[in-house]
């Protein structure tokens, strides 16, 4: 059946509630080669992520990337895996649970769930769950502060795909970027200031954002501008002058040109130039994950220290920071305006 049947009206009261779905990228179910292969197949098979013509990309993906990368990536995932599983999933779950608690404290009766764009819990499954909980209105909030067609729009795509299977659709709102949201920037600044109160100040603060192919930026993806705007606002909130901070892009994939400057070569250059201490924060990641815990806190640290740097501090992502959860509450309230939420 093209559109799924709804429960008979006698079996279910008319939906009247409001729900929020927090969405992040996704992560493998386990740090094993087969699980990482399944995850990467879905992730890198999404044309939002790799835009190359399917006839060229799919043979490379299945014939080369999915044969070689999963074992290497699984080994990396094992270095960050916790008792709660993938850090990205564990933090997303905690953020949803804290947001639910804060909203209820504020007397807002809103159902809150979390979902992943690739892997589990899937966006479609969690939208079904919110609907089954009686939500007549759903706000979808991608947890990417900076909009990119690769990330924010891929969450939106998943919502549209789900919508095409549903007979009685709830009202839907899709949130976009929050790169300049005052509460988000203040939470980032607070996190960095706290680190400095405990450990002193660095010579340079490096703000590392996930990279993007330069071609996507050239085609109009607003991501790089939004990263630079977040960095500028954050530096302003911290009272930093030019030269005291640098903005870079990490996680390059493949051989094409990505946004520059790249994080690792910048750290190598800073180390070689005699910079004693560097602190690194990753404002684009609201949750610690493979890209921050392994690529930055492990690999980038080695790069800087081997290049001659003396001290490297990774400042953790916002995770369960109370100021960040309050910023999430304010973002949600902003997007729920006009909807009954009590
Ligand atoms: C073409 C490849 C990729 C694009 C474009 C891309 C954009 C992009 N990604 C994030 C956030 C995250 N990416 C993460 C992991 C990750 N990213 C890529 C590739 C691209 N990302 C790969 C292949 C991987 C998997 C790991 C690996 O094999 O190296 C993660 C972490 C996931 C986790 O489980 O912890 C996040 C988060 C953004 C914000 C972004 C565009 C701006
Ligand atoms: Fe990525
Ligand atoms: Fe990476």
Automatic annotation (TrEMBL):
Biological process annotations from GO: heme biosynthetic process
Uppermost EC category: lyase
UniProt cross-references to InterPro entries, sorted A to Z: Ferrochelatase (IPR001015), Ferrochelatase_AS (IPR019772), Ferrochelatase_C (IPR033644), Ferrochelatase_N (IPR033659)
Keywords assigned: Cytoplasm, Heme biosynthesis, Iron, Lyase, Metal-binding, Porphyrin biosynthesis
Protein name: Ferrochelatase
Sequence similarity: Belongs to the ferrochelatase family.
Entry GO CC: cytoplasm
HAMAP family, sorted: Ferrochelatase
UniProt xrefs under Gene3D superfamilies: 3.40.50.1400
Organism: Ottowia cancrivicina
Entry EC no(s): 4.98.1.1
Pathway: Porphyrin-containing compound metabolism; protoheme biosynthesis; protoheme from protoporphyrin-IX: step 1/1
Compartment(s) where it occurs, according to its Swiss-Prot or TrEMBL record: Cytoplasm
Catalysis performed (reactions): heme b + 2 H(+) = protoporphyrin IX + Fe(2+); Fe-coproporphyrin III + 2 H(+) = coproporphyrin III + Fe(2+)
Function: Catalyzes the ferrous insertion into protoporphyrin IX.
One Pfam family this sequence matches: Ferrochelatase
One MF annotation (Gene Ontology) recorded for this entry: ferrochelatase activity
Principal subcellular localization: cytoplasm
Binding site for Fe(2+): 210, 291
């Amino acid at each position: 059946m093209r559109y799924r049947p709804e429960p008979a009206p006698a079996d279910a009261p008319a939906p009247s509630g409001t729900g929020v779905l927090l969405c992040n990228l996704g992560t493998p179910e386990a740090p094993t080669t087969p699980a990482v292969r399944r995850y990467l197949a879905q992730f890198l098979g999404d044309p939002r992520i790799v835009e190359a013509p399917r006839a060229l990309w799919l043979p490379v993906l299945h014939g080369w990337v999915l044969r070689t990368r999963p074992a290497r990536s699984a080994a990396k995932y094992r270095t960050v895996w916790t008792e709660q599983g993938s850090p990205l999933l564990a933090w997303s779950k905690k953020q949803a649970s804290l947001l639910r608690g804060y909203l209820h404290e504020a007397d807002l009766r809103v159902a809150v769930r979390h979902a992943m764009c690739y892997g589990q819990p899937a966006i479609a499954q969690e939208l079904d769950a919110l609907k089954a909980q009686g939500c007549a209105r759903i706000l979808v909030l991608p947890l990417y502060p900076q909009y990119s067609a690769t990330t924010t729009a891929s969450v939106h795509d998943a919502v549209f795909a789900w919508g095409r299977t549903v007979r009685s659709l709830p009202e839907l709102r899709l949130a976009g970027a929050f790169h300049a949201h005052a509460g988000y920037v203040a939470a980032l600044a607070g996190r960095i200031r706290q680190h400095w109160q405990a450990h002193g100040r660095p010579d340079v603060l490096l703000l590392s954002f996930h990279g993007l192919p330069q071609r996507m930026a050239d085609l109009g993806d607003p991501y790089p501008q939004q990263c630079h705007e977040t960095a500028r606002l954050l530096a302003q909130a911290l009272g930093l002058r030019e030269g005291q901070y640098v903005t870079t892009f990490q996680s390059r994939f493949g051989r094409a040109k990505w946004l520059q400057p790249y994080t690792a070569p910048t750290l190598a250059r800073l180390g070689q130039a005699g910079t004693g201490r560097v602190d690194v924060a990753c404002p684009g990641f609201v949750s610690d994950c493979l890209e921050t815990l392994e690529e930055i806190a492990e690999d980038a640290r080695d790069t800087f220290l081997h290049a001659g740097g003396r001290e490297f501090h990774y400042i953790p992502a916002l995770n369960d920071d109370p100021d960040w959860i309050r910023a999430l509450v304010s973002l949600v309230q902003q997007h729920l305006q006009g909807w009954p939420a009590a």
